[in-house]
């Protein structure tokens, strides 16, 4: 029996309550990177699609304030975004768009920076609106901006999980490690899961992961999980040009199979995680630094 089949059985046996809507709160996942150009948004989109294909209820939230592009990668024109919700020009049901594979998402762009100056009344309205959809989800993925802005830091330190995307390039390795170092020095309870994108092969991916994990263990006393890798694949570039997720346009490609394996790895780790999920209200209160 191959590793993927073993993972499928583990996930199926341990995570049935979440799939069947057993009342568990949505797990909040922040996806970040030390630098731009590592394929973070592309990974987030296809990872979300992989989770959904495995029966999970997923909401994708484009939280990149400056360079929001999830809708572009999907070839979907979003009529509404977060701004319209904050201005009460649309409710949560209207700003959620549907992408390929039936994936619900909230487009980025304007509105994100206004969240941090909401009045108590507007904050309560925002929380109530988001909670309406969050209660029906298993996972909410936030695709953040590259690097470590103050906004990205808030996402990282407020989420249940933080996935860090890097590549084998030396600058990407250095910046990924630097991001985790800065966060860990101020917020030591944050845990990270590492993804190596655009890897030549598994050996290169593990070598990249080992460099970061060994440095973190030695100098930060921080244990970083290696979640998996995505192969360097020409189909990814072709899919971007087509504005179709590569797992949809080329489902049998190496990259598509790798992201499926990553999703299985994540679900297996999530099933074994006994940490209490805080839920969307807890996330928002931490994210916007409001007391519960």
List the helices and strands and how they pair.
Blueprint: H1 3-14, H2 16-19, E1 27-33, H3 40-53, E2 58-63, H4 70-74, H5 82-86, H6 92-95, E3 96-98, E4 104-106, H7 120-134, E5 139-144, H8 150-158, E6 161-166, H9 170-186, E7 192-199, H10 202-220, E8 225-231, H11 234-242, H12 246-249, H13 254-272, H14 279-287
Parallel strand pairs: 1-5, 1-6, 2-4, 2-5, 6-7, 7-8
Antiparallel strand pairs: 3-4
Protein described:
The protein has 292 residues and is an alpha/beta fold. It has one domain: P-loop containing nucleotide triphosphate hydrolases (Rossmann fold), CATH 3.40.50. The protein has an eight-stranded mixed β-sheet, sandwiched between helices. Strand 3 and strand 4 form a beta hairpin. Helix 9 runs parallel beside helix 10. The longest helix is centred in the C-terminal third of the chain and has 19 residues. About 4% of the residues have low confidence. Keywords: ATP-binding, Nucleotide-binding. This is Flagellum site-determining protein YlxH. Pfam families: AAA_31. InterPro entries: AAA_dom, FlhG, MinD_FleN, P-loop_NTPase, ParA/MinD_ATPase. It comes from Paenibacillus auburnensis.
Largest sheet properties: 8 strands, mixed
Number of helical segments with 4 or more residues: 14
Categorize the overall geometry.
globular
Gyration radius from CA atoms, angstroms: 18 Å
Named CATH architecture: 3-Layer(aba) Sandwich
Q: Strand-and-helix sequence, N→C? A: HHEHEHHHEEHEHEHEHEHHHH
- Return the average pLDDT rounded to an integer: 86
The CATH homologous superfamily name equals: P-loop containing nucleotide triphosphate hydrolases
How far apart are the first and last residues' alpha carbons, in Å? 48 Å
Summarize the amount of helix as a percent range.
40-55%
* Strands, total number: 8
Structural domain tally: 1
């Amino acid at each position: 029996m191959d590793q993927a089949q073993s993972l499928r059985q583990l996930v199926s046996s341990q995570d049935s309550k979440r799939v069947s809507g057993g009342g568990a709160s949505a797990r909040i996942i922040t996806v970040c990177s030390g630098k731009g150009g590592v394929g973070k948004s592309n990974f987030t989109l296809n990872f979300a699609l992989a989770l959904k294909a495995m029966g999970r209820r997923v909401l994708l939230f484009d939280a990149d304030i400056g360079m929001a592009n999830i809708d572009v990668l999907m070839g979907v024109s979003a009529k509404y975004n977060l701004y319209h919700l904050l201005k009460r020009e649309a409710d949560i049901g209207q700003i959620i768009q549907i992408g390929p594979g039936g994936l619900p998402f909230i487009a980025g762009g304007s509105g994100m920076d206004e969240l941090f100056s909401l009045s108590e009344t507007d904050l309560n309205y925002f929380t109530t609106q988001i909670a309406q959809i969050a209660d029906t989800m298993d996972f909410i993925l936030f695709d953040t901006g590259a690097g470590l802005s103050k906004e990205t830091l808030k996402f990282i330190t407020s989420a249940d999980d933080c996935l860090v995307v890097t590549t084998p390039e030396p600058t990407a390795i250095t910046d990924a490690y630097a991001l985790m170092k800065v966060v860990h020095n101020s917020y030591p309870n944050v845990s990270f899961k590492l993804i190596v994108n655009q890897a030549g092969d598994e050996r290169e991916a593990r070598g990249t992961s080992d460099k970061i994990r060994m440095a973190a263990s030695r100098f930060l006393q921080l244990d970083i999980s290696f979640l998996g890798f995505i192969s360097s694949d020409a189909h990814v570039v072709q899919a971007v040009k087509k504005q179709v997720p590569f797992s949809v346009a080329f489902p049998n490609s190496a990259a598509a199979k790798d992201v499926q394996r990553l999703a299985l790895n994540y679900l297996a780790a999530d099933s074994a995680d006994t940490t209490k999920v805080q839920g969307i209200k807890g996330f928002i209160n931490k994210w916007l630094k409001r007391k519960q």
